[in-house]
Amino acid sequence: MSDTQTFLDTLKTRSAEYAGEPSWIAARRQAGAARFEAMGFPTRRDEEWKYTDVRGIAQGHFKLADDVDFSQAQAATLSLPVEAHRLSFVDGVFAPGLSDIDALPQGVQVMPLSKALAENHEAVGGPLGRLTGVDFSAFAALNTAFMEEGAVVRIAPNTVVEKPIVLQFLSREGEAVMCHPRILIEAGGRSEATVIEHYAGEENAANFTNVVAELMLDRGAILHHYKLQEAPVGDFHVASIHVEQSRDSVYTSYNLNLGGALARNDIIADLNGENAYTNLYGLFFGQGRQHVDNHTKVNHNAPLTFSNENYKGILGDRAHGVFNGRVFVKRDSQKIEGFQSNQNLLLSDRAQIDAKPELEIYADDVKCSHGTTTGQLDEDAVYALRTRGIDEATARGLLTLAFAGEVLEQVALDAIAERVELAVAGKLPERFNLAGLVEAAAALNE
Amino acid sequence: MASEEMEQLVRREYKDGFVTDIESDTLPPGLDENTIAFISNKKGEPEWMLEWRLDAYRQWLKMKEPSWAHLDYPPIDYQAISYFSAPKRPEDRPQSLDEVDPKLLETYEKLGIPLHERAALAGVAVDAVFDSVSVATTFKKQLAEAGVIFCSISEAIRDYPELVKQYLGTVVPKTDNYFAALNSAVFTDGSFVFVPEGVTCPMELSTYFRINAANTGQFERTLIVCESRATVSYLEGCTAPMRDENQLHAAVVELVALDDAYIKYSTVQNWYPGDENGVGGIYNFVTKRGECRGDRARISWTQVETGSAITWKYPSCVLRGKDSIGEFYSVAVTNGRQQADTGTKMIHIGEGTRSYIVAKGISAGKSDQSYRGLVKINPRAKGARNFTQCDSLLIGDTCGAHTFPYQEIGNSTAKIEHEATTSKIGEDQLFYCQSRGISEEDAVSMIVNGFCKDVFQELPMEFAVEAEALLNVTLEGAVG
């Protein structure tokens, strides 16, 4: 039986659930299934998947979860310590008990996708699948075929949402399951909001999450978008984020990737109006045999658009990192500025990084540059710290954190920056001996 | 610049476009095993060479033409190409320049390359490839005294079969890629250089390639071997006559450097790029690769690419020996409707290997240019080092410039740096020059030459002069 067939068979078992849904949803679902069947899972012969082998997913047998049993206590330890409007999902299923969307300010709609689909809500009719079509990838097609749950966020024009909106996805131990969340965010003109996607779970979970997010920023909208992926190290995580920006909008992405056996992120930003601004910040950390692949694409489709990208990777043990960043400038999109930087730190001889920063430019009045470096800690810097009485292990640890710090200092939410910094410090190899430092830092934060 | 002046410059015709009327002993178009047997027989090759060619051909039949490059061209009909063309009287080969067909000498005159003068004055031995058979080789004696072998690959197969057998296809295997396989099957000429242990080649070796005779693709095969502590500098330059039909060129160049050897390979390529509508022009699919087989060996590629309608070329270095060095310096200029997808591969295998890449791309008109490079660090290549600088300059708003650098790093002791920028000539830069009485065109020329300086510095003197002139001619009228 082919790998795709396993998934299509699972889809068939679901058909009773989908009976009676509006015809447009059924049509998209069928299109997704057909496209997935035609494309099959990507292989390393596909340029976009050259360095990432998805056989672990393709050959897996994943069921679909039906219940949301998850202890409040455990959820509390995993949840981000921020005051927020929160939607929670357990193995992809909406968990009302872990959610809190009672006190939404005026002009803000946050609801699970299942509710929007059931109501045939206007928030899904037009936008769903408009940015991420089934042709984008086999995973996007699969997501469309299985789309049941996810989140819909709508922010009315001129609305500033004070508290962040957290979309929390928890992964459970036990039988391997998959989920295909779909996230739709519409940011109205001159609105401002912070949305946090957070992936976490029980230590021994080994599930497959395949999420597709479509983000629309109207004129002058400001959206801070965090994706904190600290899923269990047995999880497979595939995500695509497609952003559409109108003029004067500002989109800032913080892609913080720590977990998962295999994680693949695709971030595509379309700058369609003048003076649109995109910031892409990324930090990825891998250890053990983790595989983390980040693909970003910034499309300067309009003149006078700006992008700024900074991705940093730290890889230890036998971890494998991939960075593929592309800046595209459309013909006649003049007065563009596009900057891209990718730096990688290899902590072990068996760690591997494949980097491919690309520029594709069809206009002449542009300032575009990219830089990428890969190496190890600067021995002079280690020496400098040691002359000041810091032992070597701590010096290396500090420098590694400083390396990550260049991205984390951009993170506006302190709670998240600190959490990631502590997580990275805690994961560093023994020889970096940061236990004392971590404690000291934790004490300071309290 | 005034628009009519610009118009005039853009409409400028290819300076080196003309056809020399020499009767060619040309094979009718088509490719099958008989074609290959004919070529092999014509060259008087031994049996093993024919077998080698046929094996490559059979493998080629099973291969698919690559489509990953950022290039757009109509499908090539490999049966519509004639695979052999040689000037008449092969037995009656000229022994000196005086015996060379005067029409051929005239061709060189028109190109501004007076062979004898240049050879004598510059002290350069020239193995000129006119179509597919070498017609003039000079300074052979002087080289022989130093123990250097410099001859056409056909002669080498005849006279030094053991050497050829030992090295041919060891850097670029027969089935390395589609075009290399095709070349292995049908190559008709090219150069062979062998520098024995401890010898520094007494002069710069140079071959001028010319493509001539309609519908003839050229399939050059060049093999350069430097034994321990040997050094050679090899120059390759190309121009081609004007023609309406696309000409296919699929060359293979292999370099082998043993312990402490140094090979410097410089190219100025100025083949016919096609007219302003993109009609005609050379299709240039080249596989160039050098292997630093010995410790501390060094291979340096320098290229100035201004011609061809389609360029598909990635001069590469396999750094196998400990502490070996690979270098790549490139200036690629595209104008009109030219398309170039070029770059390099640096494969670090040995410990302490270093590579250095400087690529400068200039796009003008409606042309499209891509830098495509790979830096691969094997887990065993401890302390490997790479620096890559790749800059693009866009002239006009209808061209494209792209960078696709691949980095595959499997070693924590490696240090890899890559920088790329894309920009245009700054208005302020132009204004600054013009305010000092420098004309706009001179200012552009000055800025562009400055942009390329890092690469031109690596060229041998006479090539550097030619390259600067070429650059100015190619970009004439591109700025307004």
TrEMBL record, chain A:
Residues 20-165 form the SUF system FeS cluster assembly SufBD N-terminal domain. It comes from the Bacteria. Signal peptide: none annotated. SUPFAM superfamilies: Stabilizer of iron transporter SufD. Residues 175-403 form the SUF system FeS cluster assembly SufBD core domain. Belongs to the iron-sulfur cluster assembly SufBD family. This is Fe-S cluster assembly protein SufD. The gene is sufD.
From TrEMBL, chain B:
Residues 139-200 form the SUF system FeS cluster assembly SufBD N-terminal domain. Residues 209-451 form the SUF system FeS cluster assembly SufBD core domain. InterPro entries: Fe-S_cluster_assembly_SufBD, SUF_FeS_clus_asmbl_SufB, SUF_FeS_clus_asmbl_SufBD_core, SUF_FeS_clus_asmbl_SufBD_sf, SufBD_N. It comes from the Bacteria. PANTHER family: FES CLUSTER ASSEMBLY PROTEIN SUF (PTHR30508), UPF0051 PROTEIN ABCI8, CHLOROPLASTIC-RELATED (PTHR30508:SF1). Belongs to the iron-sulfur cluster assembly SufBD family. This is Fe-S cluster assembly protein SufB. It comes from Vreelandella malpeensis.
